Amino acid sequence: MVYKFKLVSDEVSNFSREIEIDATSTFLQLRNAILDSVGYTKDEMGSFFLCDDQWNREEEITYIDMGSSSDQDVWIMEDTPLNEFIEDEGQKITFVFDYLTERSFFMEMKEEIVGRNLSEPICTMKRGTPPPQYTPIEEFEKQIDAAAKKQMEDLDLDTDGLYGDTDYNEDELGSGFDELNYNN
User: What does CATH list as the number for 2-130?
Assistant: First the structure.
């Protein structure tokens, strides 16, 4: 059986890829097919996350065991066949290709092709230019700062008189300090 996946990016609206891969292939083979299809190097960490219908991350399949606690199952790409987790058309997955910035491709299993096998995964459709593999750290920090500023504006908090107020008013401390006896 062959799985057909479609992947898109939230960074580039006209970008997509379709990859066909044998259901018995591993997540590592899927990772490599994705990276080849977009022209990225294979020297970075990455993880797949199985998602629910709203793209909430659930199970993680990681490139290497990163020392998670012993009470959690650890799924390694090289050892995990796709058909162990992918069962239905419509299964949603994210592939995090940039750990530092949490940049991801959003994937969906579009079709199960029964009665067909593939020895190697193939990219059957390329549309658009993928986002760059790396985001310069300065640009990433600007994006984080802008997002934080927008969140603060959206909260519309009255911060007058909060931390950092340079005017000192002894009455704000109350009279409780007067009653303390430091000579036990």
Answer: 3.10.290.30
